[in-house]
Each structure stands twice: as structure tokens, then as C-alpha cells.
Specification:
10 helices, binds ligand C2E, alpha/beta, EAL domain-containing protein, binds magnesium ion, eight-stranded mixed beta barrel
Length: about 280
């Protein structure tokens, strides 16, 4: 069969798409299977949330980021880097994102009763497709109301790609949610392609310095300059700033010296089940 495919591909000529390329065929097949499995994953209850600590300069827990995990029956844990892009393409991210939001809100409610955890915030990643979906604001508010989670403990992480086009719609969506107490962080800040001018008009609360800059901070002057600028910028715009991907004491010390007081990274804890969080240090 492979020979036949090769024959057909050759006969199709150089400039024609080679639909019968066996390697490509296998790749498409694997992808189709992953997609079929992903369609079943919600109904089969295969998703779970891991939580990664966010800490202040004294390493006190101030919040967590909820990170989605897919426990596949045969493949084991599938990383979000593998299935989120797929879910974004086929819009499964909308129901999946709804599940994430609901689970994170339930966690907030579980924490609300205990003074040791009542102040924790949960950051939830929101894909552009999900954010742009008609009725997104209503869905978030309905989830908050249904679960009884305090809106001011919920932070939504969005990315710069949202603001390249349709800036007004994005601002309106954010405004309506912020009116109810929900806050917004701009994730992976510095890696997008948009101009900085949108920053002054968007109702943001926090910038998250992308981990690629933090990683190279001590070896690369350009990264250090970018991080210092982001910290200064957040100060002048009166936004909170948090560094992600902090892995070493030296990185944290540099960040503190340059005015950053919130951190997330392996140095403080990897994403894990909620029971693994060290609370009240
Ligand atoms: P992100 O939102 O930027 O999340 C940070 C990623 O960096 C996480 O990867 C986290 O495990 C990893 N990380 C944290 N600290 C360190 C560190 O010190 N060093 C290094 N090397 N990595 C660190 P993860 O969990 O694999 O998630 C990858 C991406 O998948 C996320 O990037 C986010 O864009 C997306 N994602 C995860 N959960 C969701 C979700 O519920 N909804 C949506 N739409 N996207 C999600
Ligand atoms: Mg994030
Ligand atoms: Mg990030
Ligand atoms: Mg990211």
C-alpha cells in the first residue's frame, strides 16, 4: 500500500500536494485519533487541574495558577502543549475551558471557609477562542453564581493575541467582568507582536513576565533589559507584575532587586494536585 501511495504521489508531479505521502498519512491518523479521544475526554471525566503556587518575596503563598491536565486512559498524562492547540483549532476549548473555570471556582469555594486559604486567588488561562465566544461574560458570571465563588478571587489570564484585532470588543468583555470583581492578567507578556499602546486602554490588573526572559535573565543582557523595562512599565501603569518560570535563587534575587515582588516557578513549587500545596508558611 505504501508503494502504491508513493507511485500515486510521484505521478501527481512535483508541484502537487502529495495527499498519499505515507508519513503524512500516519501523522494525520495519529492526530485524528487524538482529536477523537479529546472529544470523549470531558464525558469520560479525564481532565483534572494541577495548581502551581504564586508567592511573594517572603515566599508566602498568595495565589495559584490552575493548569489543565489530561489523564488519557492509554497515553497517561498528556501535556497541555499537545492538546490545547488542537482543542483551540476545533473549538473544543470552549466546553473544556468551561470545565476548567467551574473546577477552579469550586476550589475557591472550598478555600473560602478557612481563614488560612480564604485570601488565595486562582488564575485561570483563557484561550482567545473561548474569550471571543458569544456569551463568554454571561458564562463566567453564571459559573461564579452557581458555585458561589467570590469573583474577586478569580483572575483570568489572557494573551496579547487578543488585542491585535477587535480591541474594543476585548475591552468591553474585560470591563463587564471587572465590574463584577474579576481581575485580569496578561500572560506571556513580551512575546506577542502587538504594540504597547493597547496597555493604556485595557482594564488589566497584572502583567506576567514571560518565562523565556526570566530564564535568560542572568546570562543575557537583552533579556535583563526587557525584564527591567517590564517591571518599570508595570509600575508606571500601576499594574501588578509577576515573574513566571523562576527556577533559581539568583533569578529571584535579581527580580527582587529590580522591584518585582510576585513569583511563580519551579523554585517555589511545580504544578501539582491541590493537596500538594504548602499553605500558611
Ligand atoms: P502558561 O499559562 O504560560 O503556564 C505556565 C507554564 O510554564 C506551565 O506549563 C507550567 O507548568 C510551566 N512552568 C511553571 N514554572 C516553570 C519553571 O520554573 N520552569 C519551566 N521550564 N516551566 C515552568 P504547562 O502546565 O505545561 O502549560 C502550558 C501552557 O498550556 C500554559 O502556559 C497555557 O498557555 C496552556 N494551558 C494550561 N492550562 C490551560 C487551560 O486550562 N486553558 C487554556 N486555555 N490553556 C491552558
Ligand atoms: Mg498562564
Ligand atoms: Mg505564561
Ligand atoms: Mg504560555
Amino acid at each position: 500500500q505504501a508503494d502504491m501511495a508513493l507511485f500515486q504521489a510521484k505521478r501527481a508531479g512535483r508541484d502537487t500536494l502529495r495527499f498519499f505521502d505515507p508519513a503524512m498519512q500516519a501523522q494525520l491518523h495519529a492526530r485524528a485519533r487524538l482529536e477523537a479521544d479529546l472529544r470523549q475526554a470531558l464525558a469520560r471525566d479525564e481532565f483534572l487541574l494541577h495548581y502551581q503556587p504564586q508567592v511573594d518575596a517572603d515566599r508566602r503563598l498568595i495565589g495559584v495558577e490552575a493548569l489543565l491536565r489530561w489523564q488519557h486512559p492509554e497515553r497517561g498524562m498528556v501535556s497541555p502543549g499537545e492538546f490545547i492547540p488542537l482543542a483551540e483549532e476545533n473549538r473544543l476549548i470552549v466546553p473544556i475551558g468551561g470545565w476548567v473555570l467551574e473546577a477552579a471556582c469550586r476550589q475557591l469555594v472550598a478555600w473560602a471557609g478557612d481563614p488560612a486559604t480564604a485570601d488565595l486567588r486562582v488564575s485561570v488561562n483563557v484561550s482567545p477562542q473561548q474569550f471571543r465566544e458569544v456569551g463568554f461574560v454571561e458564562r463566567v458570571l453564571a459559573t461564579l453564581a452557581r458555585t458561589g465563588a467570590p469573583p474577586e478571587r478569580l483572575k483570568l489570564e489572557v494573551t496579547e493575541s487578543l488585542f491585535v484585532h477587535e480591541r474594543d470588543e476585548a475591552r468591553e468583555t474585560m470591563r463587564r467582568l471587572r465590574e463584577q470583581g474579576v481581575t485580569f492578567a496578561l500572560d506571556d507578556f513580551g512575546t506577542g507582536y502587538s504594540s504597547l499602546s493597547y496597555l493604556k486602554r485595557l482594564p488589566l490588573d497584572q502583567l506576567k513576565i514571560d518565562q523565556s526572559f526570566v530564564r535568560d535573565l542572568l546570562e543575557d543582557e537583552a533579556s535583563a533589559a526587557i525584564v527591567a523595562s517590564i517591571i518599570a512599565l508595570s509600575g508606571s501603569l500601576q499594574l501588578e507584575v509577576i515573574a513566571e518560570g523562576v527556577e533559581t535563587e539568583a533569578q529571584q534575587a535579581w527580580l527582587v532587586a529590580h522591584g518585582c515582588h510576585a513569583f511563580q516557578g519551579y523554585l517555589f513549587g511545580r504544578p501539582g494536585p491541590v493537596e500538594a500545596l504548602v499553605i500558611g508558611r
